[in-house]
TrEMBL record:
It comes from Rhizopogon vesiculosus. InterPro entries: Smr_dom (IPR002625), Smr_dom_sf (IPR036063), Smr_domain_protein (IPR053020). Residues 25-100 form the Smr domain. It comes from the Eukaryota. This is Smr domain-containing protein. PROSITE patterns: SMR. SUPFAM superfamilies: SMR domain-like.
Length: 100
């Protein structure tokens, strides 16, 4: 089951991001731990630190109680990693992440 869950999250991440611009990572549709894994991987491996990173986290519409779960987790993780994390003023389902 663990292996199948990993394969499923990998497929969801790949499909969400195959057409995304270079400075965007789409995490919606993943579980929180999976979203944190892919966020860290993106920041460590693929992100040009001279730019901001747009992180699509979703609004929580499909979560229990319509409460976002990925957004607060990524906000905390980004800040722990020394980044500034702001909610995109034009879309509350997105975060804008920059190095301090």
């Amino acid at each position: 089951m663990v292996r199948l869950n990993k394969e499923a999250s990998k497929k969801i991440f790949q499909e969400n991001n195959e057409r995304s611009p270079l400075n965007t990572v789409d995490l919606h549709g993943l579980y929180v731990t999976e979203a944190e894994f892919y966020f860290k991987r993106t920041v460590e491996e693929d992100w040009d630190r001279t730019q901001s990173l747009r992180v699509i986290v979703g609004r929580g519409n499909h979560s229990d109680g319509n409460t976002p779960k990925i957004k607060p987790a990524i906000q905390v993780l980004g800040e722990k990693l020394g980044m500034t994390v702001d909610v995109d003023p034009g879309n509350d389902g997105c975060l804008v992440v920059t190095f301090k």
